[in-house]
Sequence to fold (307 residues):
Amino acid sequence: MPELGKIERVEDLRKIWPNEARDFTVWLSQDENLTMLGETVGIDIDLEERESSVGGFSVDLFATEEGTGRKIIIENQLEDTNHDHLGKIITYAAGKEASVIIWIVKRARDEHRKAVEWLNQHTDENIGFFLLEIELWKINGSVPAPRFNIVERPNDWAKAIKASAGLSDTKKTNLEYWEAFKKYAFNKAEFKKIFSERKAYPQGWYDLSAGNRHCHITLTATMTKKRLAAQIYISKNKDLYNHFLEQKAAIEEFLGEEITWHEASIDAVFGYDTYNADFNTDNWDKYFEWYCEKAIKLREVVKRFVE
Fold:
């Protein structure tokens, strides 16, 4: 019989992080730890500021979602939840105009779990509250390993149903299309390994992380124009666009085909663009496969050609 280890939970988190602000928040702000948190909640988190000012107070971490720019606040509490911190996350969310609110605690009391659940039920689909417990575990006296457990999260399905009631037929089709794309794409092992799943919205595009905070991948379906596109979208960063443009020949040689390039007054895009798509539902899977193939190639372009 193989020898198995014994898992032991570290009950006193302050043995590892004695001070919430100086130790835990600093630890969490490191890239690898924010990535772990992001993987838990399904959001690509890009740190903007630690101890970010909100009037006369400060939120532990202020961040944005890579690709969408949605504002995120993260409030830490290495103890049981209390009314004080519940009030803080609402105050900080209002002050920062945040769309994503993440409250990390040692233990979530039932009354506060229910309060976060209530907030998710009574806010629209653009606002989401997460309540997480942080744990530390050892195996046979090993170095402690952290784990985030989600206690409460936004009920996207319920919110989507509520929101869809007032949508036009076009927007309902958009939402159905991108939900179907997500189901198709994130059942593919290679795609799921590279990209994090994001929420689908009733609009003509779906964004993915490009692995760089200054740009993202946008998949487009303009059904009225029979347009299908997969592009690198660069916002307010002409230097980055010019950096890619200077390497146009090398990029197109790597891709094995010519692609489209377009620079507007503020934003710029480059990638794949076609106007011969028939969006009959029978063709959706074919287009989803096309998106997956092109998105993976574009992600590799960013990896190879950004210094």
Observations:
- The CA atoms of residues 132 and 150 lie 5 Å apart.
